[in-house]
Amino acid sequence: PPLLAQELDVIVVPVQVVRGGVHSDHGDFSDHQMYAQMMRSHALPPTVEPDPGVFERVFARLSTQTDEVISIHSASRGQCIYNAALQSKELVRERCRIEVVDSGVFSMGCGLLVMAAAREAANGASLDHVVEAVRQSVPSIALRVFVDNLRHVVRGRHLPTPIGMLGAALRKKPVLAMQDGALSLAEVKRTRRVAKQCLCDFVSGLGPVEEAAVMYTTTADEAEAVAFHIREHFPRASIYVSRFGSWLGLHLGPGAIGVAARTSEGAASRSRRTADRAADESPGLWARHWRKIA
Fold first, then answer.
1. For residue range 35-80, what is the model confidence (pLDDT) as tens digits?
2. How many CB atoms lie within 10 A of CB 124?
3. Residue 11: CB partners within 8 Å, gap ≥ 6?
4. H/E element, 18
5. Across-strand partners of 188?
6. Three-class SS of residue 47?
7. In 3D, which of 58, 74, 77, 78 has the Cα closest to residue 66?
8. SS3 label, residue 174
9. What residues contact 4, with CB distance under 8 A and at least 6 apart?
10. Alpha-carbon torsion angle 82, 87, 88, 91, nearest 10
11. Whose CA is closest to 184, among 78, 46, 44?
């Protein structure tokens, strides 16, 4: 969330969405009118990822304020952002030491790692310590997202087209997991109500949760309800509610809700094994549901 980023002195380099020739980032594509337009369109609006020149300018500006920077980015697999940051790091390395870390997850999954790193830095930890802490914490991030349908996910080439076609035919609510920076089908639920409960049960079943976030595209009230459930289960944990960024909103579509949690080491291992099984079983999930109606 922008206010939290400002409070923690975090610089956000967004992916931009092109609308009518104008490049926009955080809020411009998050209104209901834009999502309604997405539902009518047969193609996603083009997006512009930050190139090395963008990162070079950001790193150069930061080098006038500090001599050490950690740059954390979402899911380098399938995106150019991580590589752009690596290239820019070399351009300013004589002025500032920069360490680039792949979070392996997107949205507030990455955000929870960034916030933890910012707090470590604010407490006086060295750059080496912060980098190592982030890398060790990557497996502690658990993430689930449910989407109203797979139309936009498939358009964004995050899942194979046949899975999207089956999803459309079955009219069910897919729940997605993240494994090694890529989305996979974790579960299939009949209704939105059951899918939301699935997100709540997923976080509740992780064990000790230190921080969590609920993300949404268009349904803030539903996101708040999910956050309320998580707060009841983990009253000492910090729970945030945040809107998906423009790029993710375009690829997940209207009605999407996600949860991200930073857990203890043991709970993280269990959630990672669950994600691995979900990736292995995702084609079979649709096949089993297809047989039920065939």
1. 666 666 666 666 777 888 999 999 999 999 999 999 998 765 556 7
2. 7
3. 5, 58, 62
4. strand 16-19
5. 174
6. strand
7. 58
8. strand
9. 10, 115, 240
10. 160
11. 78
- What backbone torsions phi and psi does residue 63 show, to the nearest 5 degrees? -65, -15
Q: Is the pTM of this model over 0.90?
A: no
Whole-angstrom Cα distance, residue 67 to residue 16?
28
| Residue ranges in the chain modelled with pLDDT below 50 | 21-23, 26-30, 162, 266, 278-279, 286-287, 289-294
Measured CA to CA, the distance from residue 140 to residue 262 in angstroms comes to: 5
* Token code pair at residue 129: 């310590």
| Nearest-angstrom CA–CA distance, 150 and 138 | 27
Sign of CA dihedral 228, 233, 238, 242: negative
Enter the DSSP assignment of 46: P
**By three-state DSSP, how is residue 102 classified?**
strand
* pLDDT for position 272: 52
